[in-house]
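Researcher: Re-running this chain for the archive, since the previous output was lost when a drive failed. Same request as before.
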Amino acid sequence: MPAAGHHPDVARSVLIIEDDDGIRRIVSMTLQREGLEVIEAASGEEGLQRLAEHPIDIVLLDLMLPGLDGFEVCREIRRVSSTPVIMVTARADSHDVVAGLEAGADDYITKPFVAKELSARIRALARRAGNADLRTQVVIGDLEIAPEDGIVTRNGEMVPLTRTEFKLLSELAAGRGRVFSREELLETVWGYDYFGDSRLVDVHVRRLRTKVEADPSNPTIIMTVRGMGYRVPE
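Model: Regenerated structure tokens:
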């Protein structure tokens, strides 16, 4: 459990899973200067062990790991935890970004990155993840959203969502009938108003639909408004 005085919306501890000792050391020192507790792991296997042993607010995960790669590590994390994951990739325009997001990552950053940008992403994700603007329960068909409890159920069965997925669904449901642009969702869900990537929104919507829609290929809850964005019908 988090230590006394730990606020759930502020990142305190970051797990860095990176096999390059030099990069890991530099990132660790940078984040420590920002006041964050840093836990290091040099492999995917070690990272999963550290996650099981320590309360972690954010995972910074390199995709190109030896042995158990970052994609599989992310999938393993998602089987047991909703802890936000920022994946680190060397190629922003490659299929790695989408594949990593599909595996369950909340965000990505490319190498080489500026330390202040990484710190800003970590803090924005920690601040936004898990906080919904809804105050009362919302029912959409067979889906029930209980924002104060952070719970979504479908036909009475709990739907396992990551914190970012829950935040995204809550934002859309809070404005039922209104179209949210990708840029607006980047700002309200991820807290990014200048360095976001619309792929974050599209992949998370696609992933969310597989969990809340009866037929994800024919959605009735999260609707696409061509050329504009997404909405939840009234």
